[in-house]
Hints:
Blueprint: H1 2-11, H2 19-50, H3 56-89
Amino acid sequence: MAVDLDQAVDEHRGDGTALEDAIVEGAVRRVRPITMTQATVFLGLLPVMLTTGIGSDVMQRIAAPMFGGVFAVRLSALVVLPAAYPLWHGRSSAVRPGWA
């Protein structure tokens, strides 16, 4: 996510686009790849969570934190990181033609 945010900001540097618009464009680029990756992990763990056979109680205890991790990564990658990006780089949100 950070790489795409950096690329979007660099692409719009000097063209008068607001920093927020560049951040939104960079974040939108990553929505589908992150969603597909997390859907794959979720669908792979779903049978483990739904089984009732031998050893399923142990496997469910291993898979349950992974479910939580998938949702935490989604939240942090798609919401927290784009929101913190301007603060992290110390740039104001004003429209500036030559971002430093």
